[in-house]
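User: Is it possible to get a 3D structure for a protein together with its bound compound? The compound here is 2-oxoadipic acid. I've pasted both below.
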Amino acid sequence: MIDYRSFADYLMKAEKQKQAVSCITDQHSHFDLSMGYKVQQELVNLKVESGHQVTAYKMGLTSPAKMKQMNVSEPIYGYIFDYMNVPDKGKIKIEDFIHPKVEAEVAFILGEDIEGPDITGEQVLQKTEWVIPALEIIDSRYKDFRFRLPDVIADNTSASRIVLGNQRFRPYDVPIDLIGVSLTINGEARASGESSAVLGNPANSVAMLASMLYAEGKKKLKKGSVILTGGITEAVLLEKEDRVAARYDHMGEVSFDVR
Ligand code: OOG
Ligand code: MG
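Assistant: Yes, that's possible. Here is the predicted structure of the complex:
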């Protein structure tokens, strides 16, 4: 028997103490995807009990660049909490992390509820109020950023911080599946890609999230929900004094500094 709550506690402590731990699958070879989501739910419960609030959903491993980098093959989801929000042009401190990496994404804010098993990307776009360029800072709680899919699901998909851009756009005012993005650190190009890499269109990532939540009997995506659709580019390791910026076609720039 696996004690989901004690593994959630194990991962929460690793995050608090900024100390990487070993994978759950190394201790329990039968630990599977659904068990991963059970630990994730307990981790969410622990954070809520300690006074934090969920502020966004995130999809992960939705692009070939990310799947290849992490050596996994299936999209997954997790939650962003209030304490994870960093303002555009803001700062993070390297001491607050284990081995942070940054990746460029597109975020959606819904203008209407979305619920159901067979949601399409087109339906998502019709129900989206805003699309926003975003950076995600991921920080796996596992040693060397190495894990199997059930482990990273349990670890709330490596969620650590997000930076939403100051500018927002109407979904039909930008070619949302044709947004080129270039990620630079201290002015040097480190990763680049196009939004079509995310399941053909980042709207499909939101549709997939709605279907996954529906299949698990979980809450629907409510009007006002914020969803990060997954890294377009591979993730890049951060170091102290890094000045990180992502430039998006048609959508401006998002940036932050590492201190
Ligand atoms: C898992 C999180 C993946 C994304 O956008 O693909 C993710 C990881 O790579 O550690 O956030
Ligand atoms: Mg991500």
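The chain has a mean pLDDT of 96. Residues 4-88+97-178+193-234 form a domain with the Fumarylacetoacetate hydrolase; domain 2 fold (CATH 3.90.850.10).
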